[in-house]
Amino acid sequence: MTNLTLLQSSTPPEHSPDWRAVEAKIIAETESFREGRHTDWAACWVQNSDTEYVCVMPNTGIISMRGWNQIRQHITRVMKDDQVCSQIRYERKNLKIHINGDMAWARFDGVSWYKDGCSLDTYETRVLEKCEGQWRILQATIVTKHGNDLGHGIMSLNASGHVVWSSPGLIDRLKTHPVFILSHGRLRARRPDWDTNLQAGLADAAAYHGDFEMHKFTSINGGSLRFPIFLGETDEGGLVLAHILVRDQMTYLQMDGDALIERRLHLAKSIYRMSDGQLAVARHVVKGDGLKAAAGALGISVNTARTHLTRLYEKTGVNTQTALVRLLLSTG
Predict the structure, then answer these.
(1) How far apart are CA 238 and CA 310, in angstroms?
(2) CA 157 to chain CA mean position, Å
(3) CB 74 within 8 A of CB 38
(4) Residue 200: enclosing H or E segment and its boundaries?
C-alpha cells in the first residue's frame, strides 16, 4: 500500500510578514503592468519554464501562455506597442492568501474602471514561490466575469434576480424606465402581471446557471441560451418583452435589444420571404408597438398594416402577435 502524506495548508495571521510580502508582490505586478514599467513588472515573476499565465474572457476565449519566454515576449510587445489597457482605477476585494512553506496561493475579486466609462469584474488567482527570500509569481489566472461584447444596456442577474453588474448609467435609467424597476437590488417589472411573467422567466433562466446544465443545452442546441420573455401587453396593444441571455453562471438582461432584433428580423426576412412592407410591420410589432402605432409610424393605413400582418401569419404559420414575435426572435 502506498503511503500518502497530506500537507496541511496553514494560513498565517493576516498581516504577518509573509502575508504582507505576498500581497505587496501582487499589487506591484498589477501596478507596474498598468503603468508600463517593464523591468519592475518582470521582477515580480518567477522566470522559468514553469511560469504560466491564463486569461479567460467572454469576447476572446482562453489565452494560455506557458514558460517565461512566451509571457515575456508577449508583454514586451504589448508595452512596446503602447497597448497597455486604458484602466484608470483598479480595486481588489476579498483577498485570501494561503501559505505553506515556500509556496503561496491567493485568490481575489477585481474591479477595473476604464477611460471610456466601462467597468470590468474579474475573478483572479495567483500562485507564488519564494525564491532566494523573495516572493514571485509563478502562475496567474484572470477570469473576466463580464465582457463588453454584449453591447450597451446590459445587466447581469444572479439566480434570485438581484443585479450583480450593469452597463454604465443603466441603473439610473431604471428610475424612469416604463417597464423595469429596481426593488431592494432585485429587478422587477412595474405592473404586477408583467412582474409575474418576468420572475417566471428569470427562474427558468436560472435553472441553467450550472456548468453541466449549460453544457447540455449548448451541446443539444448548438448555441447559447438566448430567448425573449413575454411580459404582457401595453394599453395600446403592444407587446412587452425582455431579452435574456444565460452565460457566466448569470442571466443577462439586454435593455436595448435593437441590434439583436434587427439581425434576427433580417434573417427571418430571408427565411420567410417577407416583403419590405411586411418586414417594417414586423419590426414595429416586435418592438412592442400596437398595429395602430405601427401604421402611424410607417405612414400607412391601419388596414394596410393589418394586411401585412395577415400575410406574415400565413408565411410563418402562426396566428397571434405573441406567437409571431416569439418565432421571429428565435430565428438564428
Answers:
(1) 16
(2) 10
(3) no
(4) helix 192-206
Burial category of 212 from C-beta neighbours within 10 Å (exposed 0-12, middle 13-18, buried 19 and up): exposed
State mean pLDDT over 127-136: 95
Q: What does the DSSP assignment read for 40-75?
A: HHHTTB--STT-EEEEEETTTEEEEEESHHHHHHHH
d(CA 89, CA 91): 7
Distance CA 114, CA 128 (A): 28
pLDDT value for 84: 58
Q: Which grid cell sits at 314?
A: 400565413
Cell numbers linked to 254: 439586454
Let me know: does 246 contact 157? Beta carbons within 8 Å.
no
The per-residue DSSP string of 134-148 comes to: EEEEEEEEEEESS-G
Confidence bin at 257 (pLDDT 50/70/90): low
Cβ proximity of 328 and 312 under 8 Å: no
Highest mean predicted confidence (pLDDT) among 26-35, 56-65, 80-89, 319-328: 26-35
| pTM across the whole model | 0.60
Question: From the centroid of its chain, how far is CA 238?
Answer: 29
Confidence at residue 328, expressed as pLDDT on a 0 to 100 scale:
81
pLDDT tens readout for residues 155-184: 889 999 999 888 778 888 888 998 999 999
Measured CA to CA, the distance from residue 226 to residue 253 in angstroms comes to: 10
Rounded to an integer, what distance in angstroms lies between the CA atom of residue 53 and that of residue 67?
9
Label residue 101 by pLDDT band (50, 70, 90): very high
CA distances from 312 to 15, 187, 229, 306 (A): 68, 34, 21, 10
**DSSP letter string over 8-44?**
--B-PPTT-HHHHHHHHHHHHHHHHHHTT-HHHHHTT
Burial of 114 per CB tally in 10 Å (0-12, 13-18, 19+): middle
